[in-house]
């Protein structure tokens, strides 16, 4: 497989990944999270990431087989000599964009998790304050007035 075609395929997969990340952000910013959709997006992302990793490994092998050193400079030189420097740069741009989207999605997940944990902590505190006496009646709760007097 030629380097130009490989870079084109990687760019297509990165665009698909960016679309999935945008969909994930939409789900995460919705008032009510659609757990099934979020799970489906996560599965699709995992498949794409595995495919991208396989393609990147193949690209590195092609680069080394052509006699270029490993790393960024070798990749750039290989792309320049193969006449596909623009495709390589587009692939880098797409990689940076998906990394930013992925970081944003991670931050959104952290915000949601923190919010959910605070809500659970609050519910737990409220539940602990609702004590019942041996007869099953709600006992006196601190800070509440007894209105039966």
UniProtKB/TrEMBL annotation:
Pfam families: FlgN (PF05130)
UniProt keyword annotations, A-Z: Bacterial flagellum biogenesis, Cell projection, Cilium, Coiled coil, Flagellum
Coiled coil is among the record's keywords: yes
Domain of life: Bacteria
Residues in coiled coil: 38-65
GO biological process: bacterial-type flagellum assembly
InterPro entries, sorted: FlgN-like (IPR007809), FlgN-like_sf (IPR036679)
Cited function: Required for the efficient initiation of filament assembly.
Family the UniProt entry places it in: Belongs to the FlgN family.
Record's protein name: Flagellar protein FlgN
Source organism per UniProt: Halomonas urumqiensis
């Amino acid at each position: 497989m030629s380097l130009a075609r490989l870079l084109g395929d990687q760019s297509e997969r990165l665009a698909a990944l960016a679309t999935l990340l945008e969909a994930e952000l939409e789900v995460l910013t919705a008032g009510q999270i659609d757990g099934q959709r979020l799970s489906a997006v996560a599965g699709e992302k995992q498949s794409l990431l595995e495919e991208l990793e396989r393609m990147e490994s193949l690209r590195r092998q092609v680069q080394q087989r052509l006699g270029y050193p490993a790393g960024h400079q070798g990749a750039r030189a290989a792309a320049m000599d193969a006449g596909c420097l623009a495709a390589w740069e587009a692939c880098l741009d797409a990689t940076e964009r998906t990394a930013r989207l992925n970081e944003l999605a991670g931050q959104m997940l952290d915000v949601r998790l923190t919010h959910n944990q605070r809500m659970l902590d609050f519910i737990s505190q409220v539940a602990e304050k609702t004590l019942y006496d041996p007869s099953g009646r709600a006992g006196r709760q601190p800070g509440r007035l007894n209105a039966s007097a």
